[in-house]
Each structure stands twice: as structure tokens, then as C-alpha cells.
Amino acid sequence: MGRYSNPMMGLVVLFCLWAVVAEAEYLKYKDPKQPLGARIRDLMKRMSLEEKIGQMTQIERKVATADVMKQYFIGSVLSGGGSVPAPKASAEDWINMVNELQKGALSTRLGIPMIYGIDAVHGHNNVYNATIFPHNIGLGVTRDPDLLKRIGAATALEVRATGIQYAFSPCIAVCRDPRWGRCYESYSEDHKIVRAMTEIIPGLQGDLPANSRKGVPFVAGKSKVAACAKHFVGDGGTVNGIDENSTVINSNGLFGIHMPAYYDSIIKGVSTVMVSYSSWNGKKMHANRDLVTGFLKDKLKFRGFVISDWQGIDRITSPPHANYTYSVQAGVSAGIDMIMVPENYTEFIDTLTQLVKDNIIPMSRIDDAVKRILRVKFTMGLFENPLADLSYVNQLGSQEHRELAREAVRKSLVLLKNGKSTSQPLLPLPKKAPKILVAGTHADNLGYQCGGWTIEWQGVPGNDLTVGTTILSAIKNTVDPATQVVYEQNPDSNFVKSNEFSYAIVIVGEVPYAEMFGDSTNLTITEPGPSTINNVCAAVKCVVVVVSGRPVVLEPYVEKIDALVAAWLPGTEGQGVADALFGDYGFTGKLARTWFKSVDQLPMNVGDRHYDPLFPFGFGLTTQPVKRN
């Protein structure tokens, strides 16, 4: 009987098999021709709770493997400060590592690509041989949004050169107290300058299409990266500048000073926003539903994803991690979409899963988070181009980018004094002189001039950290070949007097630091800087160049100094400092921060009633370039 079965039955079976194959072949979410919303909805309806929570989980490179990516459906990986595949790793080393992890993500049932994030906060600063741009405190001085946009574009190319698609940048903090250890990550004490500098976002991500809806994230393809406005909100306003402390201020102050740059960032299509460790009037930002969900998402219509800071939810409790279940509940309920766990990911996944299963966190909150994460991934083309190739490798530390950084250094310098009398300026210095002295701890130290967040989280002293030009090398490159350059780090006064120097350049400042390790109550120049200034400037005409992440105590020395330059943290391209000292270019920078007389005055910002600075906000002398034959 079976041999002569109904041919119609055979057709039905065939049709069913064809339908199964067709279904396997055509997945709407994998079709770039489908509208974004349709792709998100199609993928979401296929996802299990486990897969959704995996998307919300960001883990550190050190604990990530292809197997972990696959087993836990991990949505994102990051490199913390100094977390690299190998010391002095090449672009290819980075690409191989990122692709290996990506292959793990792609091997899951649904093949959702992961997004890899890194702190590229002044160029691609974790990576050997990358161009290190001046820190934000110097860039604010330039008041040049176009320069910021070009720096963003260059940084994006260097990040993509290593296979990475996401930069935790820019920091749009408004630092109101230089005692804060992150003040150099802030463009200015004035929110108007910080707002203008958000032009780095279209540099990193690309220009928004003309018909874009407000708040929708945008990344223009493979040469651009997802950006991150941080740290939401009020990180720069904490009491006494103590890192991660509480910003005690009324609503007018929070929304008038610390919030405005977020409006610009969202209008420019920023993909992500990172929440601040700090509190507002005692309420932890990582648990502040009114601001994260009520204001950022609902009122400002931000449609990208909100990410926590490193162990940010752990720090909702004091001490951190004291009640992790509460931390996860508070952070996710506040509206944080992606959690930078970053190491103990099984604890996070198990805790959040249980909170959902117990109906403490509703499925709608999980779906909101995942929808936002997928929106960014789809928008940036990650599903179509999940794996990196070598096409941008030559962008890392390219000559073009180094020239751009050199331009940024020149424009970020502020000339605070030029001559003991205005009729006798010392700068620009003559290139031709019999013998000149270069002194100071910061003259020949690439690590010092780059500052924190360079190769390592806290920065690295010395000249072996990466490739660049120290200020001493720049001076030697610039002077006439017949000029003798004598370098003595900390000369005594007899040495200075016994040599007949035409003039001296003294380069001193702060040593590198990051975050809470930079919090300072005294803001002094690192020893033996003060004695170097005294010994040299008492005996010969001197220009003092200050390499620091903020204004420091200078009032005791100003009278003795002939010329004074604030160079901030210029990065790898020290040649930009020599460009202005010797008059190849003029000084143009204007202070974007108030320079105090004494720390007892702090906090003191432009517009305050008791405003009595050493150098006021907006101050900066100018020089003209020297026309040489």
C-alpha cells in the first residue's frame, strides 16, 4: 500500500520542507533593506530572556573568550584603561583579538554581533603608536568646533584601525573645581564652551542625515564609531571636587550648567550616554530613574542606549557590592540599558534573570534596553559588517593625524605672561643663539606630557610608553643648527650662572593621574619644579612652560618668570609647543578655566561674586608669527 501513497501528500511534505528552508534562509532582521523598526521587532520576537540579558551585559576583555561570548550571549566587550592584547600590540593584534571574540558572538543561535568599547578619550590612547591628542582641558582653550570635529574623525579612524567600533568619548563634564582628578577631561568651567566642543560627536560618528529624528542614534558606517556622552550628569560639580562625590546644587544649577551639553549631544545623534558615579544632592545617578528615564529618555527623547560606568551599579551601595541584588534592581529600574559589569558577569546575569522571573523587574524594561542596544548595532551596520579587516591599519598614528594633533597643541597653548614689561616681550624666542638651557622634569618626558589615560589608566612616565616627540626634542628640531642646546633637568644656580645662556626654557608641571588618584587639595607643581624655576629664572631670562591637567599654584613664581605658557597635557606631538615658542605660529589660546591665586579661593568660577583670579577666564596674550626668510 505504501508504495502507492497519495501524490498530494508528497507535495504537501515537499512544500513544508521548502517553507522550513525558506524560513531558515530569510530572516527579516538580517535583511538591510528592511526598515530599522521591522528588523528590531523581528529579532526581538525571536529572543529568549537569556539572549536579551546577554545583550545587556558588557564584560572586560580579560574575562572574555569566544566560548564565553557564545555560552552567555554576551552583547558587548570593553578594554578598561591599559587592558591590551599584548604590550605594544600592533593594530593586527587588536583586530585578531576583537574578531576572535566577534566570531564567538556570531556563532550563537541568532548571530547577534557584539560591540567592543574602549576609552579613546584623547585619541586612541590605550594603543601603542596611536596619535595622542591634547586632553580636553587644552582643546577647550581652542574654542574651535571644526578642530574638534576633525579630531573626532581622526580618532574614529584610529579606533577602527584596531577593529573596535565604540569609543567612550566625549566627556562633557563641566569641571567647576580644579581639585577634581578628572578636571583635564573637561573642556571648560563654562557650559557654553563644552556645548560647542560636542562637535567632536559628528567627527566620531559622522554627520546626521538631514531628515533624522531628534534623539535617534547615528553612525555612518565602517570608518566611524559609536560615541558616548559622559558622565550623566553633574560629574564636574561635586563638593570640593572629590571624585564620585555628590553634586549639591539646585535644579536650576544642574539644568543650567551640567545638562546643556547633553541637549547638543542628543541633537547630534550620539549613540550612547554613560551614567556618572556621582550623586545629585545625595541620590546616586546610577539609581536616579527621574533623570535617566524621566528626563534623558522620555523628555529629551534619547533613543540610543544608556550604559553604566565600570562597576557603576555596584557603587550604588556603600560599601560597593554590599547588596548586589538591590544594585542590579536599582540600576536597571533607573533605566540603564547596558551594564559595564565588567568581570563577574555570571553573578550579574543570574541576579537580573532572577529579578525578572520574580516579576520585580518587568519584561517591558528588559525589552526597552535590548531594543535600544539593537538600534545602535543595526544603525551602525554591525550586522552587515561584524568583522574587521586590515583596511584601516595604516591610519594608526598616521602622519596626517600627528600633524592634526600638532595643530591642536599649538592652538591649545595659553600665553599668560610675555616679558617683565610689555614693551620687552621675550616670546617668540630667537632660533639662533649661541647657547640655550632647557630644564625641568617635563622637558624630556613623553609620559608626563600625555598625562593619565595614556597606555595605562594612570598614565606612564618616561619615553618608552609610545611613539611621539618630547618638548626637548621639538626644541632641538626647531632651533638653528648652530645653537647649542644644553639640557639639565634640575640645575643649581651656580650651573646656570657659570654658563652664559642666552635664555632658558623651563618645563615643569604635574605627574600623570586619573580619576580619584588625581584629586588634590594643594594643586602644586611636582618637586623639584619650584626650585628649578627659582634657580633658573633668578639667573637668566626664562620662559616657564607648565604641563598640567588643570591650573596649579603659580602665584609665588610669576614675578620671577619672564614668560609663562600653560601647555596643559599636549599629548605625543610636542612639536606644537616649539611651533609657538619660536614664532613659527602665534599664540592664540584663551583660558577656558579660571586660574586661581590660592587654593583657598576654590571653587571659583567666572561670574562668581568673589572673583579674584591670578588670570581670569578668557585671558591669553597673543603673538604674531615671525616672518623669516
TrEMBL record:
Residues 49-376 form the Glycoside hydrolase family 3 N-terminal domain. It catalyses: Hydrolysis of terminal, non-reducing beta-D-glucosyl residues with release of beta-D-glucose. Keywords: Glycosidase, Hydrolase, Signal. One of its GO terms (molecular function) is beta-glucosidase activity. Pfam families: Glyco_hydro_3 (PF00933), Glyco_hydro_3_C (PF01915). Residues 1-24 form the signal peptide. The keyword Signal applies. Its EC number is 3.2.1.21. Belongs to the glycosyl hydrolase 3 family. This is beta-glucosidase. It comes from Nicotiana attenuata.
